[in-house]
Amino acid sequence: MLTIEDLSFKFHRQSVFAHAQMQLLTPGVFGLVAPNGSGKSTLLNLIAGLLRPQSGTITIDGQPNTTRQVFKQVAYLQDNRVLYPYLTGRAHLDFVAATHHLDQAHVAAVAEQLKASAFLDRRVRKYSLGMKQRLLMVMALVTDAPLILLDEPLNGLDPTCLRLVHEAILAQASQGKTVLVSSHNLPELSRVTQDIWFLHDQQLQHEVVSSEQAAATRYAELYEAVE
Q: What is the DSSP string of 134-183?
């Protein structure tokens, strides 16, 4: 579903990726791990075509990540700064539904799955962080895209909401979707995947970690010496 080859990207003359490689060949949930500010969101923006690499290629389902291909194949949960505080949650979902020609019953079912229905008619400026995260999750999942990019979806959630989000992520994988979850919350990420892509030294390296403790140990080996 996703192939990145020879990716190089600089931001303000600072190299973020240097000839990096990545392949997600099978459906499932994959983690993207690095400290804050290391380039996790940058990578997701590159995949979604919001940024362009200086060199290299990104293909989605075998096709270049053009605007059309991203629209057809990708759902992207960005951080909550993309929300409009003066609009209701329902207005956001209505826009997504109209753009993707979605059935309202389907939208309502996804909102109910994430227990977001109760606050959809409030303006977003009155939302807690957890409410914003759940609205963003609903917006991402309603499109039924085969490739789902989730940028820190586990932030700001209480235990009940975390369980709902875990279940929603795992349900997408069980339906044959490919889900890439960026996070530095290793305990929660370990609940949904053991397949981790670590962003380290301008490269992307894949490792299978058997447990939360194994993930924490590997994180310390890669990053704590340079923090």
A: HHHHHHHHTT--SEEEEESTTTT--HHHHHHHHHHHHHHHHTT-EEEEE-
